Structure formats: C-alpha cells, structure tokens
Amino acid sequence: MDGGTLYSIGELAQRTGLTVKTIRFYSDQGIVEPADRTHAGYRLYAPDAAARLRLVRTLRELGLGLAVIRRVVDQELTLGEVAAEHAAALDAQISILRLRRAVLAAAAQREPAPEEMELMHQLATLSEAERRRLVDDFLNSVFEGLHRGFPYAAARRSMTPELPESPTDEQVRAWVELAELALDPDFRASVRRLTEDHAAGLPDDAPTPPRPDVVALVRDLVEPAVARGISPDSPEAAPVVAALTARCALAPGRPDDAELHPWLLHRLNAASDPRRDQYFRLLALINDWPAPERLTPVIDWAVTALRTRAAR
C-alpha cells in the first residue's frame, strides 16, 4: 500500500497486535487520532498510526502513564528524558521492594510478634538522616562523658554502620538486627560498662602510642591456646595465664598481685556479652568489612582459667 492508504481499525489491530477495543480507547484519549472516517462513520487511520501505536504499546509495557505517553508521541518530551525519569522512579520502587523483601525474609526466619514485625519494618524504612540519629543516640549513650584520654572519635568510627544506597537483602537484615540491638537499653548499658572500665584504666594524659586494651591482650595471648584446643583448667594453660596476668598488669601500670585477678575477671566479665560479637558481625556485613573474629570464646576461656586458679 502506498503512503495515501488509510487503514480501518481492524487492519490497524492486525498490524500492531493490539485489540480493536484498545485502539479505540487510545483514539478516544487523543493518543492516536483517525485521519478520516468512512461514509458510515468508521474510523480510518494513516500509515504512521501503526508506528505510533507500537511505541505506545512499548511505553505502556514499561509502566508509563497515558499522560506521559501522549507528550512523548506528540514530541513534547524526548524518549531519553522520559526514560531517565522513569528509570529513576523504578530505582526508588526497587529500593522499597528490596527493603520490604528483606523485612519479610527476616520475619520468616524469626517468626516475630506483631509488635516486633512493625518495629522491623520501621527500622528498615528509616531515612538516612533517621538512621544517623538512631546510631548517634546509641553511640552517645555509650561514649559521652568518658575519661578525656579515651579515643572517643576513633571508637565511634569503628562502631558506626553505613548502610549503602543500594543495600543487599543481607545488609538490610543486618541493619534491622543491629538497630534493634542499639535500641536495647540492656545492651547499651553493657557496652557502656565496658567502655567505662576501659576508660577508668587510662592515665590523665593519653600515652603515645596508647596502651593496649585488656580485651585486645586476651585476644592476642589466649587465641592461640584456644586454637590448639588447650583446656583452660589444664596444666598447659598455666603459662598462658601467667603471660596474660603479666601483660594485663603492665597495660594499666598496676602490680601483678592478688588484686589483679579480681580486677581482670571484672573487666573480662563486662566484655563477655555475646551481643558485642553480634554487633560487630552485623556492622561488618553492613559496612562490607571483613568478618571480625569472635571474642566471646577467648574471653570465656580466660575467665574459666582465672577462676580455676583462684579456686586452688
């Protein structure tokens, strides 16, 4: 057919794959208008109507509304402009759907109560500013007002989660669980006690380099014994305990005497909360850091070893 040929609505339906009803609807909306009518009043369309309708069908399948489509086919908007705008909208929708999916996946694993489910959803959908306020409130409760020699800024950085703009499901689930920990008053008090104990052992003027923390010393000295399977109440544990008490006495600058063991046990009991390991595991997932070593096993080993020797 040449350029002057007009198509009936049925012929146009065959060429485009659209139904007659759909073409009539688009025609009534002014998106594709008839070029003429028969004597009986039936609509006739120019050849470019087929290309116009195929474009409309594609844009509809991509999720665009009729108002936007009309502006595209009327050349008021370019396809590039519409595509960029729609892609951005889809990104936002995908982000929301990913958050919802992560919450549902977490709920499927935990079988939460209705109140907990609501909290999980609220935590997952917080804005970046709201997440920052929640984390700042937690870290303030842990660190504010400590000894002036405490490495406040570095400690805050090491405990601050930074959820990426496009988090994975695992990162969203980790954020929800970490946020629940940060809101738990008992966990806050536990971490606060640990930081207070550490700060209490610092001198008025922080040394350079800083003295190692007791927990870090336990990790370095006890971890090899745990890895080798040495029992904390065995004779093989004695040299490890001796080295540990000597180093821990040196760290705060106090004598290795009878008062050291109760002091050391107090410090280690404060650090033995398994939720601390959980917090740092979740933090590593959120921030895409290497998985941290669990400290609870080595701390428990040291506590058992110290108590065993104190009872002898």
Structure description:
- This protein has a 3-stranded antiparallel sheet.
- It is 65% helix and 2% strand.
- It folds into 2 domains: 7-77, Multidrug-efflux Transporter Regulator, Chain: A, Domain 2, CATH 1.10.1660; 147-166 and 183-310, no CATH class.
- The mean pLDDT is 85.
- The protein is rod-shaped and about 115 Å long.
- The protein is mostly helical and 312 residues long.
- It is built from 15 helices and 3 strands.
Give a brief outline of the structure.
With 312 residues, the protein is an all-alpha fold. The chain folds into 2 domains: 7-77, Multidrug-efflux Transporter Regulator, Chain: A, Domain 2 (Orthogonal Bundle); 147-166 and 183-310, no CATH class. It contains 15 helices and 3 strands.
SSE order, as H and E?
Answer: EHHEEHHHHHHHHHHHHH
Q: Could you report the average pLDDT, rounded to the nearest whole number?
A: 85
* Largest sheet composition: 3 strands, antiparallel
Domain module tally? 2
Shape: rod-shaped
Got a strand count?
3
Query: Strand order within the widest sheet?
Result: 1-3-2
Distance between the termini: 106 Å
Q: What structural category characterises the helix and strand content?
A: mainly alpha
What is this structure's SSE topology?
Blueprint: E1 7-8, H1 9-16, H2 20-28, E2 36-37, E3 43-45, H3 48-61, H4 66-73, H5 79-110, H6 114-124, H7 128-143, H8 152-158, H9 169-183, H10 185-200, H11 214-227, H12 238-250, H13 260-271, H14 274-287, H15 296-310
Antiparallel strand pairs: 1-3, 2-3
Helix pairs in contact: 5-6, 5-9, 6-9, 7-10, 9-14, 11-12, 11-15, 13-15
